[in-house]
């Protein structure tokens, strides 16, 4: 995946988004932290480096990025929207022990019925990750 600033800048430009410092910072955080963070997670991580960045900026930036399909929103967590830089369809695994959410390949992709205009598909496996499975067994 893209790690350097110029690739992120290009991605934003191609999506029609002006690559501001804060937008690049949010994209860079999502690219290097593949943890499906919440907006609050991103805010807490970036405020250290960008003290002038407000929560509103983060929320607005994430809204814009998802509207332009640069990030994907996932509705796994009842209380929080999670954000994913990987916009290619894939499944998610959520550990009910430690709360970690990680990617899994999507096999045998389910298809919507004919005539259904699908805008999103989310596949979620819930259970225990390798670490939590061992603790609980
Ligand atoms: Zn776990
Ligand atoms: Zn993901």
Which terms would index this structure?
two-stranded antiparallel ribbon, Arc Repressor Mutant, subunit A, binds zinc ion, single chain
User: How would a textbook summarize the main sheet?
Assistant: 3 strands, mixed
User: Can you count the helices?
Assistant: 5
Strand content: 5-15%
CATH fold name of the largest domain, please? Arc Repressor Mutant, subunit A
Q: Any idea how many domains?
A: 2
C-alpha Rg (nearest Å): 16 Å
Describe this entry's structure for a reader.
The chain has 137 residues and is α+β, with helices and mostly antiparallel strands. It has two domains: 5-84, Winged helix-like DNA-binding domain superfamily/Winged helix DNA-binding domain (Arc Repressor Mutant, subunit A), CATH 1.10.10; 91-136, Dna Ligase, domain 1 (2-Layer Sandwich), CATH 3.30.1490. 39% of the residues lie in helices and 14% in strands. It has helices at 5-14, 21-32, 39-49, 55-67, 130-136; strands at 72-74, 82-84, 91-95, 101-104, 124-127. The strands form two sheets. Strands 4-3-5 form a three-stranded mixed β-sheet, with no helix packed on it. It has a two-stranded antiparallel ribbon with strand order 1-2. The protein starts with a helix and ends with a helix. The relative contact order is 0.14. Bound molecules: zinc ion (2 copies). One zinc ion binds at residues 95, 97-98, 100, 128-129, 131-132.
């Amino acid at each position: 995946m893209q790690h350097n600033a110029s690739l992120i800048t290009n991605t934003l430009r191609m999506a029609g988004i002006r690559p501001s410092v804060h937008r690049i910072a949010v994209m860079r955080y999502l690219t290097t932290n593949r943890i499906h963070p919440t907006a609050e997670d991103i805010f807490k991580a970036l405020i250290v480096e960008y003290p002038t960045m407000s929560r509103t900026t983060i929320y607005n930036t994430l809204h814009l990025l998802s509207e332009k399909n640069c990030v994907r929103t996932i509705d796994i967590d009842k209380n929080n929207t999670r954000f994913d830089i990987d916009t290619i369809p894939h499944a998610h695994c959520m550990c009910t022990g430690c709360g970690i959410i990680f990617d899994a390949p999507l096999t045998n992709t389910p298809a919507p019925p004919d005539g259904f205009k699908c805008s999103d598909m989310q596949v979620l496996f819930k259970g225990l990750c390798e670490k939590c499975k061992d603790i609980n067994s």
